[in-house]
Amino acid sequence: MIIPATASPRSTLLFDLLARLPDVWTIGGESHVVHRQFPHLAAENAVFDSGKLDERHADPETVRMFRCLVLAMLRNRDGALLHDRPAHEASGTTAPLIVEKRRVMR
């Protein structure tokens, strides 16, 4: 679930409430923290159309690294990391419910 939002206390409240639910996983905040790890995706280092990323920016290596970073950061409301779950909890379960808050440009 992605919460697209401009800077707003309402979107932060919604994210915080959802993140407190059992069986919900987040990276602990907004996804710009992850995006900053890729200098070639920064606005000052590339040519963007209205600051928007699209499939042209999703080269295989960037996608792989982005996924790895997000998976390494996923945590539940208690701060337990997704990848640290015991095998018996992770096997046979459905995909984790991931909630993300993403800033959008107006």
Question: Could you walk me through the main structural features you see in this protein, from its secondary elements to its overall organization?
Answer:
It is a single chain. Helices cover 31% and strands 11% of the residues. It is an alpha/beta fold. The strands form two sheets. It has a two-stranded parallel ribbon. It starts with a strand and ends with a strand.
Write a concise keyword list for the protein shown above.
alpha/beta; two-stranded parallel sheet; 31% helix; 106 residues; 4 helices; two-stranded parallel ribbon
Summarize this structure briefly.
With 106 residues, the chain is of the alpha/beta class.
Task: Tell me the strand order in the biggest sheet.
Answer: 1-4
Structural class: alpha/beta
Number of separate helices: 4
What is the straight-line distance between the termini? 20 Å
Rg, please? 15 Å
**Strand coverage percent:** 5-15%
Oligomer: single chain
